[in-house]
Design goal:
The strands form two sheets. Strands 1, 2, 3, 4 and 9 form a five-stranded antiparallel sheet that branches. Helix content is 8%, strand content 37%. The chain is elongated, with a radius of gyration of 19 Å. It has helices at residues 51-57, 152-157, and strands spanning 15-24, 30-33, 40-43, 65-70, 84-88, 103-108, 111-120, 124-128, 138-149. The protein binds zinc ion (ZN).
């Protein structure tokens, strides 16, 4: 058995992966997709992707398709009932536009957080701090478009540079 002349580059830590990612819920309804836009650029091993997705991609090469199902604990967490909190309207960028059911961002001590509006009052808003996809089992379909080595600079910064990545 002789080694092939050139092995395809496979996914592992400190490589940059370009992929299309589609997720569906248990009923098959589309949750998120990169189709129709540019593929997602990910620096592997730097917590840019859900850990379960990185594990599923490990060792794969460009052109491969991967399907994986992640339960809530491995996706966006279990939904907790006690995470609805009353927040002053001053922490929202456009408080006049807030509507129940809307997913928006609120300024917190930990930075901007995605929340779902539950109820809008005069000066305060009840928001759900659960991630919008908390409690969902997600079925992911991934297609690897490209795998390359990250540059030393990308590894130091912890993100991808160039087209589709950070420009600075
Ligand atoms: Zn950078």
């Amino acid at each position: 058995m002789s080694e092939p002349m050139s092995k395809p580059m496979t996914v592992t830590r400190d490589r940059v992966v370009s992929l299309h990612c589609e997720s569906r819920d248990d009923a098959g309804a589309l949750v998120e997709t990169t189709r129709g836009g540019p593929p997602l650029l990910v620096l592997i091993g730097h917590r840019m992707l859900l850990r379960g997705l990185e594990r599923a991609l490990e060792g794969r090469a460009a052109g491969e398709r991967v399907e994986i199902t992640l339960p809530p604990e491995q996706a966006y967490g279990v939904r907790a009932d006690d995470r609805v909190q009353r927040v002053s309207k001053k922490y929202f960028s456009e408080p006049a536009r807030l509507r129940p059911g809307q997913v928006t961002r609120v300024r917190t001590e930990q930075g901007l957080r995605a929340v779902t509006v539950v109820k809008v009052g005069g000066k305060v808003v009840d928001v759900d701090f659960n991630h919008p996809y908390a409690g969902m089992t997600l079925h992911f379909a991934l297609e690897l478009m490209d795998v390359r080595e990250a540059t030393p600079e990308e590894i130091a910064h912890g993100h991808v540079h160039g087209p589709g990545g950070h420009a600075h």
